Amino acid sequence: MSPPGVEPGGDTAAQVQRALALIHEGRLPEAAGLCRQVFEREPRNFNALQLLGHIALQLRDYPTATRWLTAACSVNPAHAPVYSNLAVALLALERPQEALRCCDVGLELKPGFPEAWCNRGHALLALGRYDEALASYERALASNPGFYDALAGRIKVLLVLSRYDEALASADHALAQHPGSIDAWCQRGAVLLKARRPEEALAAFDRALMLAPDSPEAHNNRGTALRDLKRPAEALQAYERAARLRPEFAEVWCNAANVALDAGHYTEAIGRCDQALRIRPRFLEALNIRGTALRLLKRFAEAAAMYEEILARSATYGQAQSFLLTARAHLGDWTEWDSLARSIIQRVDAGDSASAPHAFLWICDSAPTQLKCAERYSRDQFPAAIPLWRGTTYRHDRLRVAYLSADFADHPVAHLVAGVLERHDRGRFETFGISLARDPAASAMQTRMRQAFEHFHDVSETGDREVAVLLRDLEIDIAVDLTGHTRGGRYGILACRPAPIQIGFLGFAGTSGASTIDYLIGDAVTTPAADADCFSEKIIRMPDSFMPNDDGQAIAETPNRVDLGLPDSGFVFCAFNTIYKLNPAMFDIWMRLLRETPHSVLWLRSGEAAVVANLRREAERRGIDADRLVFAPRTERMEAHLARYGQADLFLDTVPYGAHATARDALWAGLPVLTMAGKSFASRVASSLLTALEMPELIAANGEDYLSRGIELANTPGAIASLRSKLARQRVTRSLFDTDLYCRHLEFAYQQVAARQRRGEPPDAIDVPSLR
Question: Contact at 8 Å (CB) between 417 and 506?
Fold first, then answer.
């Protein structure tokens, strides 16, 4: 804020000067009392009004400050500092557009006023106009090179723009100008946190606390560094200390809520967000975290309400549009689907961080745009750190391969890859399982996954850099990430470059967008050579499908239709994809299929009551009897789930996010899958499986082709029986379900990339030949 000053003149001048002296001494209540006395005698006394506004600002009473300073502006509309101070109050009240107007008025009155330029930068930063904000801070610094608020604002913009090296240089410059500043040390720590260097950030916050042991900001920031280091108990202690020092510190409650989220204590996280919102009812970050907790509790309607509230206040806040679309999709609620999806895609195309990469897979089917999304997200969340591997060439008797996953449990990834991991040639490969998340529910699959590796490390409570150091110390030749941008993924580990070769595989059907991932395992259908520029990695193309399979997976005896809730007769379209992959355009096609195939039903995966009600209502809106939608409950045993496919006639795939493990399950169980040729990895997985089985007749070119093929198959006697017979033959004659062969292909790929690295050659695309 601008320093207080008074205009001379008037009988009350001495009283005002005394109030000013009291302000400088920090005796704010006494100063306010004197100013109120002046105000009561002279309601339009400019000096009293502006000093009362300044005092309210110092006391963080922003509504009162706004009233006093607005009154001061009306009395003297030619005083630039008052407009600048009014902008500070408006910014604190989350009214950045009004603050910007105040700054512009102040600069018209005093063009070189650094405080107004700085506050203008703050307003533009809040409005998301980052380049303009940076320019405003530069103007402030041109007038006053040591102006700390402008230096700090410049750092914040550079962080938003992911320009971490420049931000760190600015933080060091601020410290050189203000070596004893607690806030400068906190700023440096904040930069290091964003750059994913939490150990150094912690040291910066500790330095701040040496200068001011009771700084709530430093304790709060220290907690965030400890959280990033996977030291949640210490993080919570730091947040609690900050809250004791400043009970109305809303950000602390949000940070504590994140600790609860990390631990899976979602209800507790909601309670902490409510504390933050009690302090700051319009605190968007608190609403955002609360929405996340509600989503994880599968309370999707309440989560959607949170995001609606956020967007009502800030139309493009963070990833709120994407979260809203996702929450509604889990309910089968497609309100504003097209407009929201279009806005998110436009923002991603413009370089905005409008969606996480995983959610974006069911919003957009453009591989180039998905790359933009992943690159921005990875740059923000997992910036490349100082590499731990410095070019050492390992000469092990066996290649050391580490698999990193948050899904070594009863999860589709584990079901797909378990057989391959068990069949690695132990004479040539030494395998390490690196478990990123602890599954609280013990399962047979969890035990099986542990036993599939020679070495197993649970790193769920270990910081990213510590895990990277472990991999480096183990001299891992190839680090294979099986989670990617899905829940529990920790690309921050590989951002530290702990291994000479780093590969993305299976868990995320798209590019990582991360410069530290060298290769992505794909195939000629999901990752064709023509799309090479759409991936940040070089592609390892498997000879059949990229997807591994466990050819030992059992299938129980097929139950009868009545027990499954299906009609005794009639054609059964099956769509067991998760509900959020469904969208209104896909549902339109399915309802047209039902209309053109009398006596058919659509068999869907069941969800909560709201999902069933919404989808039945959508069917009726399209002229289809709601009873023709049948919902299948969850089964606990995989073999029982697979057995159900025996009573379906045709599996219907979705676009743009198609069936992956689910399509594989249907084909393994003998059920033909109808899919549509998509434009991205995530939309081509079923096409990849069908191509490997030499069943191209089930791959439609577009929506109309998909519809006509579905109608023909359902209405042509014997067509499905013929497809089932062909699928049964291809299952045993083609190599898609040959786990041993897949393992040999994967090992060949590992040997090829390792040979390239040892020859000093950079990563390049590799086409694995068929070893059949």
Answer: yes
